[in-house]
Design goal:
Blueprint lengths: L1 H14 L1 H29 L11 E9 L5 E4 L6 H8 L3 E8 L8 E5 L2 E5 L1 E4 L3 H4 L3 E5 L10 E5 H8 L9 E5 L3 E11 L10 E4 H7 L12 E6 L5 H9 L11 E7 L8 E3 L2 E4 L1 H29 L5 H9 L4 H38 L9 H26 L4 H5 L7 H37 L9 E5 L16 H14 L4 E7 L9 E2 L2 E2 L11 E6 L3 H4 L4 E4 L12 E5 H7 L8 E4 L2 E9 L14 E5 L5 E6 L4 H15 L8 E2 H7 L2 H35 L1 H9 L4 H35 L10 H27 L3 H5 L3
Parallel strand pairs: 6-11, 8-10, 20-25, 22-24
Antiparallel strand pairs: 1-2, 1-12, 1-13, 3-6, 3-12, 4-5, 4-9, 7-10, 8-11, 9-10, 14-15, 16-26, 16-27, 17-26, 18-20, 19-23, 21-24, 22-25, 23-24
């Protein structure tokens, strides 16, 4: 029987070619979408899941209750927290402090003999390999970071520095940052694509503490803390202990600690009230839903076309029933037909995926490979079989239920339930298509909003790069007025003389990078317990005017005044937080040292628009090594070439790496930009598949009503009247779809936009464009068949009556 059913299936495919092409196109497109989304979701879900102790590994976060009652959550924790947790909490097996690469905002210079390479550095406690377990291909994990002079390098860096991996162990490298230190290479590691913060060199955390001694105090919040719990430990009990842990170290602090499984930090990276409530997982869910919806639309096409064209197969089914075929056997035949079609579509879908993988990777910024591992093969088989079963289930039950007499006479009465189901499926298709069109507009407008919003500073035509730190035995070389400050000032002055350069400034971090948060700001006499935190910007004299940040009170730092290091500038939010009505001239304390407020800048958005404006203090640090150059925009290539030549003169043999400030800003919304593009593509696919189904239905409707059309034409009906008659049913269905879609996409759009602290509004014309697009697409699709039907000569249809 299986052979017989397969033969009948192939014959039907050949007999009804148009239906076959529509179904195979829709199903293959839907399955290709599901496969691509699966590969993307699988890659997203694999991030940070490379450790042996994933189920017991947690990252510790610090929450802070602000004056307005808002609770902020950040990864920065006290620099000595890991040691305290490991020694004081018996549930903790190991804990480690890490200073990740993004803390530095720039690449660090590694030198070996005559080779100078810029790398991403990371510092970690000596127990790093008791918590993290990346692939250590050379060296001993137990002793790799046991000494302050130890360092590990990546496989790629080892090859670039030493020629091969085997020669790396025991070699000496120099790492130049604010200090220059010599390290012995004790290990070589290999990172997978699942590491979210890749690095090239790993050094002992004690070295970082030596250069940043304030991290030994409980009030700081820069390093990241990770821990592994002992087997069988109740994580909730540990979380309860963490909540009040800081109170045992700092009196009257408003800060507390919370923990989250490290494997979940990538997807669940948005926090409200100190709890992870979403983040990238929302995009994962969105694309899973979209992929399933697109596949469902393709299945709906199959159902609708199969039931609509049922009259062509009445005699076939009737004869089989007359000679004894059971309903179950007939249903099996139609299910075999739909499952066979699904498998044919699957092979086409896999070919489409294979062809699209390079473009998909370029679009998503990933390195996905189509590999037929056991998980993918099993999932694909299940999805294909379910797709075939779902597609064929309704037609199978529908066609096998009729009586033999009615079938052999060619009579088929459409019940109300059957008509309602078919029209309901069409409404569902176009409701989804309408929602996707409006959703595309909402996402596009929000991305455009954040990219064009007035941020309070001018980021156009500004490049920035890092000056390299040269070795020095002078202990005051990096201090105020030291040799490095003079070197920075000299390079800035020479840069100003390059044609096309409008201005030059320097800062410790770039505008959109990580700035760090600090407490210890006391602004009321005797207030020694102020725990409010401020974002910390460390800048040179010309930073504020170069970026066009507006001074609303007081003045900027100036070389005309002495002792500017004892002064300080705040933003408006900080002044409001402190409640200072007349701040200019007020003396505050920063970590116990007097600072006089000389200016207040207008609030500007130095962080993502997901975040509300935070209080900022701006400190003067003249030796800051990041140079920012504003160009006039007329001949930027020549100006940049001039800056490059100057850099290479001062730092021979070192690659000149620069970035545009507006590119840095746009990079913060790379995910949203990719989501916008992918949503447009998926919306287009959903609409195309819906149109294929609608085209098939209108073609069949026109064919079924040809005699009615011919009679109407004989009695004088015009072609316009005929077209209106045939399209009115589908126009009504689309209208219902739009009415259903408006509230659904309104609430969905509002929910997505709520994740932004600053967002665009959903305008009424979004829905107008969506409705107009759907009506236009429907009109074009329906017209392709109705025009042809309206132009048929009645004599050709009625001559046999």
């Amino acid at each position: 029987m299986l052979k017989h059913n397969l033969l009948i299936t192939l014959r039907n495919f050949m007999k009804y070619k148009s239906t076959f092409v529509i179904n195979i196109a829709g199903l293959s497109t839907g399955l290709a979408t599901v496969f691509l989304v699966y590969l993307w979701v699988n890659d997203e879900s694999s991030k940070n899941r490379f450790n042996d102790n994933d189920d017991r590994m947690y990252q510790v976060f610090q929450t802070r209750k602000e004056t307005d009652g808002h609770i902020s959550t950040g990864g920065g924790t006290p620099g000595i927290l890991a040691d305290a947790l490991a020694s004081e909490l018996p549930e903790v097996e190991s804990a480690v402090s890490i200073v990740p690469p993004y803390w530095f905002n720039s690449r660090t210079l590694v030198v070996h003999n005559d080779k100078k390479i810029k790398v991403l550095e990371q510092y970690a406690s000596k127990d790093f390999y008791k918590v993290f377990t990346p692939d250590l291909i050379r060296g001993n994990a137990q002793t790799a970071l046991s000494k302050k002079s130890n360092a590990l390098v990546s496989e790629d860096l080892a090859i670039r520095l030493f020629g091969n991996v085997d020669d790396a162990i025991g070699k000496t490298i120099e790492v130049r940052e604010w200090s220059q230190k010599m390290y012995e290479v004790t290990g070589v590691f290999r990172l997978t694509d699942h590491v979210t913060d890749p690095y090239d060199v790993l050094m002992n955390y004690e070295n970082f503490l030596d250069d940043h001694n304030w991290l030994r105090e409980w009030g700081n919040s820069d390093p990241r803390t990770f821990m592994v719990l002992k087997p069988g430990v109740d994580a909730n009990a540990v979380a309860g202990k963490l909540q009040g842990f800081l109170n045992t170290k700092m009196k009257e602090t408003s800060n507390s600690l919370m923990m989250q499984r490290y494997a979940d930090t990538y997807l669940y990276n948005r926090y409200e009230g100190g709890i992870a409530v979403g983040g990238r997982i929302e995009y994962v869910r969105l694309f899973i839903v979209i992929a399933l919806v697109i596949l469902t639309i393709a299945c709906i096409n199959f159902m609708n076309l199969s039931t609509a064209r049922a009259t062509r197969r009445l005699k076939e089914v009737g004869i089989k029933k007359a000679i004894g075929a059971k309903r179950g056997g007939l249903a099996t035949q139609f299910l075999v037909e739909s499952i066979t079609l699904a498998w044919l579509a699957a092979f086409i879908a896999l070919a489409i995926v294979w062809l699209l993988i390079p473009s998909f990777n370029a679009l998503t910024g990933k390195h996905i490979v189509l590999s037929f591992d056991a998980t993918f093969v099993l999932l694909a088989a299940v999805v294909i079989s379910v797709t075939g079963f779902v597609s064929g289930s309704y037609p199978a039950l529908y066609l096998s239920q009729f009586k033999v007499g009615e079938m052999l006479k060619g009579r088929l009465r459409n019940s109300f339930g059957e008509l309602f189901a078919r029209k309901g499926l069409v409404v569902f298709q176009y409701t989804i298509s309408f929602m996707l069109i409006v959703g595309v507009i909402i996402i596009y407008k929000q991305v455009d909003y954040v990219q064009s919003m007035n941020l309070g500073y001018d980021r156009e035509h500004v490049i920035h790069f890092e000056l390299e730190v040269e070795p020095s035995t002078d202990p005051n070389y990096f201090g105020p007025g030291g040799g490095f400050e003079q070197r920075v000032e000299t390079i800035m002055n020479e840069t100003r003389r390059i044609p096309g350069v409008v201005g030059v400034a320097n800062a410790y971090h770039d505008v959109t990078g990580y700035h760090g948060r600090l407490g210890g700001v006391d602004w009321e006499p005797g207030d020694k317990d102020a725990q409010e935190s401020f974002n910390n910007l460390e800048v040179g004299y010309d930073f504020i005017p170069l970026l066009g940040v507006e001074m609303v009170q007081g003045r900027n730092y100036s070389r005309q005044y002495s002792d500017e290091a004892s002064k300080i500038i705040f933003n408006e939010t900080a002044i409001k937080l402190m409640g200072l009505k007349d701040p200019i001239g007020v003396t505050i304390k920063l970590w116990g040292r007097d600072r006089q407020i000389i200016g207040v800048v207008k609030d500007f958005h130095y962080e993502s628009l997901y975040q509300e404006l935070q209080p900022v203090l701006i400190q003067l640090v003249p030796p800051a090594p990041r140079i920012m150059v504003k160009l006039d925009g007329d001949n930027m290539n020549a100006s940049i070439a001039g800056v490059r030549a100057l850099y290479e003169r001062y730092f021979p043999g070192i690659a000149f790496e620069y970035r545009f400030l507006d590119d840095d800003y746009n990079a913060m919304y790379a995910s949203e930009q990719r989501i916008s593009v992918l949503t447009r593509i998926f919306a287009g696919l959903a609409i195309v598949i819906s149109c294929l189904g609608l085209y098939g239905l209108t073609a069949f409707t026109a064919e079924r009503r040809m005699k009615e059309i011919s009679v109407r034409k004989v009695f004088g009906a015009s072609e316009i009247t005929i077209m209106r008659l045939l399209s009115s049913e589908f126009t009504m269905l689309v209208s219902v779809a739009i009415l259903l879609g408006v509230p659904l996409i309104w609430f969905a759009g509002r929910s997505w936009l709520s994740g932004f602290a600053y967002r665009s509004d959903i305008s009424w014309w979004y829905f107008l464009i969506g409705a107009g697009s759907i009506f236009l697409i429907t009109l074009i699709t329906v017209s392709m068949n109705t025009i042809r039907a309206a132009r048929v000569n009645p004599a050709q249809t009625l001559r046999n009556e």
